[in-house]
């Protein structure tokens, strides 16, 4: 930031200089037309082409130095009229501009202006008078981001795109208050904020409650596409869903405010390719947002998880494993020589697989001599080392592996040994299921379960757990954790061993490097469309979709102004006026002008 | 183009009156070799005519027939007898009426004043007098000795004495004084007009009158120069460089005329119009021996 900045209180008056300069130029043109002089012998004078440096016609078009003096004086006078001032950044509190980056900012009727376009015009107009004021540009998406801490001249269009699935304006305001104490807030959005605005907060909204039709949900799985189409307008919707490739059309009639779930079959030819579903609404006036009318769904990676069961399991455990794995099509036994996705081991051991399941199925651990020495003082604890069903089961730390596990009437026998990593399931106070990532970045899952003392193999828990395990293993495969996601959702990418970089190509063609930490990368793609990821020789495609019912429903949008006219109005005493300096300079120029004229002897110029 | 002289003499009456008032009693100086037939005026030159004038010592080259041998017999000095010649002096005043003479009103007034001075001085001296208005054609003024009655054309013809020697065809007096009042602002060869002026004249004078704005033009930014006679235009910035080149060309032009005049025995007298308008300061004319 600069130590001071310069501005005009009434910058509009600067335009006075334009007609004044034009009038001056006109006067010069009229005054400096060639004066006719009758001479008795023109042959005594230069011919125009005789001298290129003087006395020729070409110099007639160049105004004399006095003209520039007069013009400079005129500009200085106009500038003085506009009340120039100089000030330090402390004169004004910082201004935090919170830009609503949600999709609804793009809504507009044909030929109209979107709230984003209106807001941008408002910002350019209002901030023009104070170009050097410190401005914090905060983009309010699902989570607020400080895009720039600079000044009012910042090109905010580079980071304000209106693509986020939602906007948390309150969090953005809180972030602004934390970043710059005492700052003024300016919120540019498309509706009245849902929270109470502080007195120094300015708000500008040019939104309108427009009608809209949208695809608000989409998922592709097992050869099917599940969609939710919504009609957020007050008129019935007569539209069509068009699936590409193949241009398969499905007519769709929706009542006002109706949301309907539709299932479409993926054409056999496109099972392994991306498909596009487009909602075609012929009535453009009831479809203010276009970005939510189309989704692209990449093919999900649903190939079976290959596994290998190591030797050394008790017979009951092995039998339970074979039953659940053979009955689940998501698993396939690894072939000889093939590196499996999942290694199931009775004890911790080295494995080339990315996921290791350690089923510690051994019966109760007997007390060791070392334990005996402490038994005297802690007889109770010694007794709890015995295998037991322990207390009630309770899940901890939500994860894919523990999602939706049925625990009712489940009897769990386990040793009282502690488990490494993050506990996902606890029996009483004994951790029975945990997970961690080891130093080799492999996923390790620990299962503390004695099948002999448990009904687990006959309980619904067992197949659900392995279904979750399949999903977990798939997510641990190299590449993106998901291929279809909503705008703004977190995308996790697991990179092949040795990969040091990840580059992404956005739907708009711009590319960027994503920071890689310990072979993984995370980022939240916002732009709708197909993103290309590349790391070494590996390439993946990810589809980012504008799926947000809250944003597609524009009924809550509307115009709202608060203090919108006070941005550039600051107490005069905070400024140091500079008009006197401009007037002084103008006077000096005019004095020099007069001196030159006097020396020339009466103003022949 | 309308020139100041288009209104003829009434317009210049003040200038003529001032000239007459300032030079009321002056006479035109007769040349040393003026001769005539009628003998109404005694010539300065001693000759072989009517009246003894004086003796002087013989100088090589004198006519031996004029040696007074009787004086030689008495004094052994060779003396020459001088006689005064009675003459009838004549004068032609030619006033250039080309448009360039009226490039400024002051210049036109000065030219008319000069012509008036010369004709009045000639009349005062008893000269036979002709005043020629040199316009498209030479025209003799019917009242040459009365400037206020002159009837002359406006200064708007493209006449230039040097441009058309053939037109320089007034019936001048033989063996008289010929005075041409002009500005010599023509690009042509001076020889023909000077020869025409000097042939058969006892004395030929060219009075070159220029306006101060032509001698020392002011610098200016944007000027459209228009030739007074040809109408040719040049758009110039009159800066120091352009003016310096103008001065150089003007001096060369004057020098060319001066050299041509000297070679033909013609007196070239450059004058400034400011000396004859509005105030009449005829000092240069006296210094040059034209007036007395």
Number of domains of chain A: 4
Shape call of chain A: elongated
The overall pLDDT of chain B, averaged over residues, is: 81
Radius of gyration of chain B: 22 Å
- What is the tally of helical segments of chain B? 7
Report how far the terminal alpha carbons of chain B are from each other. Answer: 39 Å
- Assembly type of the chains comes to heterodimer
Q: Tell me the span between the first and last alpha carbons of chain A.
A: 46 Å
Number of helices of chain A: 10
Number of domains of chain B: 2
Question: DSSP strand (E) fraction of chain A?
Answer: 25-35%
Q: Give me the Rg of chain A, rounded.
A: 37 Å
- Low-confidence residue ranges of chain B: 1-8, 33-50
Number of strands of chain A: 33
Biggest beta sheet attributes of chain A: 8 strands, mixed
Lateral strand order in the biggest sheet of chain A: 17-16-18-19-23-22-21-20
Task: Determine the structural class of chain A based on helices, strands and strand pairing.
Answer: alpha+beta
Low-confidence region ranges of chain A = 50-60, 364-387, 601-605
Q: Overall mean pLDDT score of chain A?
A: 82
Write structural notes for this entry.
- The complex is a heterodimer of chains A (605) and B (292).
- Chain A is α+β, with helices and mostly antiparallel strands.
- Chain A has 4 domains: 1-32 and 60-91 and 570-605, no CATH class; 93-210 and 554-569, Rossmann fold (3-Layer(aba) Sandwich), CATH 3.40.50.410; 305-368 and 376-471, no CATH class; 479-545, Macroglobulin (MG2) domain (Immunoglobulin-like, Sandwich).
- An 8-stranded mixed sheet of chain A has the order 17-16-18-19-23-22-21-20. Chain A has a 6-stranded mixed sheet with strand order 6-5-4-7-8-32.
- In chain A, helix 1 packs antiparallel against helix 2 (65-81) and helix 2 packs antiparallel against helix 10.
- The longest helix of chain A is centred in the last third of the chain and has 22 residues, at 579-600.
- Chain A is elongated and about 130 Å long.
- The two termini of chain A are 46 Å apart.
- The two termini of chain B are 39 Å apart.
- The model of chain B is unreliable at 1-8 and 33-50 (pLDDT under 50).
- In chain B, strands 6-5-4-7-8-11 form a 6-stranded mixed sheet, with helices on both faces. Chain B has a 3-stranded antiparallel sheet with strand order 1-3-2. In chain B, strands 9-10 form a two-stranded antiparallel sheet.
- Chain B folds into 2 domains: 4-33 and 89-287, Rossmann fold (3-Layer(aba) Sandwich); 41-87, no CATH class.
- With 292 residues, chain B is an alpha/beta fold.
- Chain B has helices spanning 8-22, 69-75, 105-124, 191-198, 212-215, 240-263, 283-287; strands at 41-47, 51-57, 79-87, 90-96, 128-134, 138-140, 177-182, 203-210, 220-227, 233-238, 266-272.
- In chain B, helix 3 (105-124) links the parallel strand 4 and strand 5 (128-134).
- Chain B is elongated, with a radius of gyration of 22 Å.
- Chain B has 7 helices and 11 strands.
């Amino acid at each position: 930031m600069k130590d001071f900045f310069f501005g005009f209180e009434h910058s509009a008056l600067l335009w006075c200089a334009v007609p004044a300069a034009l009038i001056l130029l006109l006067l010069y043109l009229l005054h400096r037309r060639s004066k006719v002089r009758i001479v008795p012998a023109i042959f005594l004078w230069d011919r125009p082409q005789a001298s290129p440096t003087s006395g020729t016609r070409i110099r007639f078009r160049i105004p004399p130095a006095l003209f520039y003096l007069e013009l400079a004086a005129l500009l200085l006078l106009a500038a003085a009229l506009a009340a120039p001032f100089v000030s330090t950044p402390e004169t004004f509190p910082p201004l935090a501009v919170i830009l609503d980056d949600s999709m609804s900012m793009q809504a507009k009727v044909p030929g109209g202006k979107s709230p984003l376009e209106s807001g941008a015009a408002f910002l350019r107009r209002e901030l023009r008078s104070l170009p050097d004021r410190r401005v914090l540009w905060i983009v309010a998406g699902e989570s607020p981001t400080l895009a720039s801490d600079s000044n009012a001249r910042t090109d905010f269009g580079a980071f304000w795109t209106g693509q986020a699935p939602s906007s948390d304006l309150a969090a953005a305001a809180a972030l602004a208050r934390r970043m710059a104490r005492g700052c003024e807030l300016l919120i540019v959005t498309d509706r009245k904020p849902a929270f109470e605005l502080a007195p120094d907060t300015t708000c500008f909204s040019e939104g309108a409650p427009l009608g809209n039709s949208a695809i608000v949900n989409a998922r592709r799985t097992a050869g099917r596409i599940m969609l939710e189409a919504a009609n957020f307008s007050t008129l019935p919707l007569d539209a069509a869903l068009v699936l590409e490739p193949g241009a398969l059309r499905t007519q769709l009639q929706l009542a006002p405010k109706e949301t309907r779930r539709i299932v479409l079959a993926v054409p056999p030819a496109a099972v392994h390719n991306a498909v596009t579903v487009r909602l075609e609404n012929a009535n453009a006036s009831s479809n203010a947002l276009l970005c939510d009318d189309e989704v692209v769904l990449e093919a999900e990676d649903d190939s079976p998880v290959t596994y290998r069961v190591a030797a050394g399991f008790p017979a009951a455990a092995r039998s339970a494993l074979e039953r659940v794995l053979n009955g689940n099509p998501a698993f396939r036994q690894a072939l000889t020589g093939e590196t499996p996705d999942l290694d199931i081991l009775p004890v911790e051991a080295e494995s080339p697989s990315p996921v290791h399941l350690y089923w510690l199925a051994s019966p109760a651990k007997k007390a060791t001599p070392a334990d005996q020495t402490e038994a005297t003082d802690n007889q109770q604890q010694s007794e709890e080392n015995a295998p037991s069903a322990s207390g009630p089961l309770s899940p901890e730390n939500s994860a894919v592996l523990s999602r939706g596990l049925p625990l009712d009437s489940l009897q769990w026998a386990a040793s009282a040994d502690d488990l490494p990593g993050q506990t996902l399931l606890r029996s009483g106070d004994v951790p029975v299921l945990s997970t961690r990532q080891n130093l080799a970045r492999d996923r390790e899952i620990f299962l503390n379960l004695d099948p002999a003392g448990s009904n687990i193999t006959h309980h619904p828990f067992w197949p659900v757990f392995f279904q979750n395990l399949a999903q977990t293993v798939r997510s641990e495969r190299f590449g993106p954790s998901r291929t279809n996601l909503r705008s703004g959702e977190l995308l996790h990418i697991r990179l092949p061993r040795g990969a040091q970089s990840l580059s992404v190509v956005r739907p708009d063609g711009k590319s960027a490097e994503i920071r890689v930490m310990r072979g993984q990368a995370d980022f939240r793609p916002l732009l709708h469309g197909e993103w290309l990821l590349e790391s070494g020789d590996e390439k993946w495609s990810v589809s980012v979709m504008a799926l947000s019912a809250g944003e597609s429903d524009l009924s809550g949008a509307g115009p709202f102004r608060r203090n919108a006219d006070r941005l550039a109005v600051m107490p005069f005493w905070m400024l140091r006026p500079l008009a006197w300096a401009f007037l002084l300079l103008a006077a000096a120029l005019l004095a020099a002008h007069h001196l030159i004229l006097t020396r020339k002897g009466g103003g022949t110029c | 183009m309308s020139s100041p002289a288009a209104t003829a003499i009434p317009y210049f009456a003040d200038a003529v009156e001032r000239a007459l008032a300032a030079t009321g009693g002056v006479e035109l100086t007769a040349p040393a070799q003026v001769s005539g037939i009628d003998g109404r005026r005694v010539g300065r030159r001693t000759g072989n005519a009517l009246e003894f004038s004086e003796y002087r010592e013989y100088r090589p080259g004198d006519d031996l027939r004029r040696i007074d041998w009787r004086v030689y017999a008495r004094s052994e000095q060779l003396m020459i007898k001088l006689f005064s010649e009675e003459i009838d002096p004549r004068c032609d005043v030619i006033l250039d009426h080309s448009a360039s003479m009226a490039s400024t009103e002051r210049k036109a007034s000065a030219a008319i004043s000069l012509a008036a001075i010369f004709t009045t001085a000639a009349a005062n001296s008893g000269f036979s007098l002709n005043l020629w208005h040199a316009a498209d054609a030479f025209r003799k003024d019917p009242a040459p000795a009365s400037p206020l009655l002159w009837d002359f054309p406006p200064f708007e013809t493209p006449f230039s004495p040097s441009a058309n020697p053939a037109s320089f065809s007034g019936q001048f007096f033989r063996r008289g004084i010929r005075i041409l009042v002009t500005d010599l602002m023509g690009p042509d060869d001076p020889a023909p007009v000077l020869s025409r002026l000097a042939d058969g004249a006892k004395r030929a004078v060219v009075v070159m009158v220029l306006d101060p704005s032509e001698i020392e033009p002011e610098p200016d930014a944007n000027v459209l120069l228009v030739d007074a006679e040809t109408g040719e235009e040049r758009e110039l910035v009159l800066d120091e460089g352009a003016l310096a080149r103008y001065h150089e060309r003007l001096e060369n032009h004057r020098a060319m005329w001066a050299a041509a005049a000297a070679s033909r025995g013609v007196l070239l007298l450059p004058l400034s119009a400011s000396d004859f308008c509005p105030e009449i300061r005829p000092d240069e004319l006296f210094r040059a021996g034209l007036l007395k």
